[in-house]
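Bug #2210: token dump truncated for ROK family protein?
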Amino acid sequence: MQPGTPNQLKNSNINRLRKIIYQKKQVTKPALAEQSGLSIMTVNNLMRELLSNEEVTETKSSVSTGGRRASVFEFNAMHRLILTLCLLEKNKTFAFLFSVHDLNGNILVQEELAGDHFDKVVAKKQIEQFLVSYPAIGCLVIGLPGVEHNGVVQVMDFSLMKGERLKSYFEDAFHFEVILENDVNAVAYGYSQSAETNYSNAVVGLYYPETFPPGAGVVLNDRIVKGRNGVAGEIAHLPSDPDWTTFSFTETATIGNLLNNIQTYMSLYDPDCFVIYRNYWSDDQQLKILVEGRIKMEFPFVELPEIILSKDFDQDYVFGLFSLGIKQLNMELEHFN
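Reproduced locally. Full output below:
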């Protein structure tokens, strides 16, 4: 159904053009008219607004057909930028990775800070420095090993940020959208967005850090499964899990826990894919045999899911946060997906 007012119709048509330009990156005016179903005159009028907002740039085509060269509209990936902040486990402590992304996902700058004294005030000062160099930042996405509930960070491995209202603190300071996401949720989402395979069922990410309890993330139908209170994936709280304060974290003990969690998530989600993150296993092939063996033992009739052993936690983490940011900035385009 078409929007009811002229202004709504105009916004609808502009968003249609935005989506085409974002997908194509470069497109001529006739192609825009053809793909959008709008007249050349309407495209001309609407493109003036996108050009004045610097959302697109205009150049002349290098190809001439004998007459005037056609105008080419190019998506301006620097029009707005996304800042991501990852809290990472590094060498049995925490590190804080800042990345500035353009709208095509290119990382313009990246800076990692270490220290057990990092808190929201330190983070705010660091973000202020990025804004001086990159004033087009329009969204902040923070990944953390914890859960936000009712605006407060809960179940947090990093004590200096537990109990803080980070979202409201940074939104009040910078006046743009701030998104908080659990680290393993973001990692699973990042993998699902970058994978060449288009998964029709769930993707389950399982993360086993060296000296902290594991975490899980589930992506289903392009959405992170969070649950009512955001605690979906907090597998360290399963009744079958050990006392993590006395857990040995040896590889043998870790594999035993992993196999139990594989069985649990197979029972709950029957996923297309398990992505298991850990920096080191002594024998990757043997581990895959053990995982597949546990699934076959419990479900001998099923088609096995894809089992991926990944060391790309940081990469998928950063990309997952960026993907959540671009989704936020382009929410109006989703109506045309």
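Output looks complete on our side. The CA atoms of residues 119 and 161 lie 6 Å apart. Marking as cannot-reproduce; reopen if the truncation happens again.
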